[in-house]
Amino acid sequence: MPRFEELSAEAFAAAVAATPRPFLVDVRTAAEFEAGHVPGAKWIHVHEIAARRAELPVSKIARILVVGDGAKRAQAAAAWFVLMGHADVAVLAGGFESWTGAVEKGPPLPPKPRGPELRVI
Predict the structure, then answer these.
(1) 45 inside domain
(2) How does DSSP classify residue 50?
(3) What percent of the chain has pLDDT over 90?
(4) How far is Cα 60 from Cα 45, in angstroms, rounded to an integer?
(5) What is the count of structural domains for the chain?
(6) What is the pLDDT of residue 36?
(7) CB-side exposure of 84: number of CA atoms within 13 Å?
């Protein structure tokens, strides 16, 4: 049994508009994201989430909302967030296709450069 919520488009829109603002991540391909995405979403492909941990919320109680193309990618990303200890994770049921709110278009922003790595000698 998953430990994340599946929200209808209406409930997801309300969650996106909530204060404090949740961390909104789109796990679809770059081309899918560019064609249209939920305003304010950060693009991180589902296969890159672990490698881009530095861009994710540090707080384990921050609300994380996941948008995918349907069930598989979004649920895989949500399950990963839960496994990493995040307590408040939700997925847009039906994927981006079910989104009825405003849509932004354009390419994803490039990932933030990583800072210097500390080495223990």
Answers:
(1) yes
(2) G
(3) 79
(4) 21
(5) 1
(6) 95
(7) 20
Is 93 within 8 Å of 65 (Cβ atoms)? no
Distance CA 29, CA 15 (A): 23
Over residues 51-105, the pLDDT tens digits come to 999 899 999 999 999 999 877 899 999 999 999 999 999 999 999 999 999 999 9
Contact 24, 40 (CB under 8 A): yes
Q: What are phi and psi of 103, to 5 degrees?
A: -130, 135
CATH number for the domain harbouring residue 10: 3.40.250.10
Question: Any idea which residue has 């895989």 for tokens?
Answer: 76
Read off the pLDDT band of 108 (50, 70, 90): confident
Question: By three-state DSSP, how is residue 34 classified?
Answer: helix
Q: Which two tokens stand for residue 37?
A: 């995405």
